[in-house]
């Protein structure tokens, strides 16, 4: 190909960052994060922990998409994964009970006030 287009000789190698294979990798990472968060906390704090974990993961995927300058194409990208995780995080936050969150983080808020 270099005989036809000499400019292709110095083209940087690009790794596959989207498509069905990477969607599986991203999905597996997100599911493992959710399962880990659910297993490490008591059942009353499962939804608030899921919310925090999903929103943190959404922020990481959005940061990766921004740094990699991913286009908004028809393939599944990090932007799509970030959007799904943000939706799950906000949904879990809306469904969680406020008194469980206050009882869990109340001692930290009192310590920060003093």
TrEMBL record:
Which stretches are transmembrane?
23-41, 47-67, 79-96
For this UniProt record, the keywords arranged alphabetically read as follows: Membrane, Transmembrane, Transmembrane helix
Q: Name the source's superkingdom.
A: Bacteria
**Annotated protein name in UniProt:** Uncharacterized protein
């Amino acid at each position: 190909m270099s005989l036809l287009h000499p400019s292709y000789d110095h083209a940087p190698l690009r790794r596959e960052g989207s498509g069905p294979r990477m969607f599986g990798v991203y999905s597996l990472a997100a599911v493992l994060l959710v399962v880990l968060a659910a297993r490490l906390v008591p059942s009353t704090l499962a939804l608030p922990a899921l919310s925090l974990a999903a929103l943190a993961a959404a922020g990481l995927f959005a940061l990766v998409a921004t740094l990699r300058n991913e286009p908004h194409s028809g393939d599944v990208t990090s932007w799509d994964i970030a959007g799904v995780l943000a939706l799950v995080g906000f949904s879990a936050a809306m469904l969680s009970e406020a008194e469980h969150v206050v009882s869990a983080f109340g001692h930290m808020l009192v310590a920060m006030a003093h």
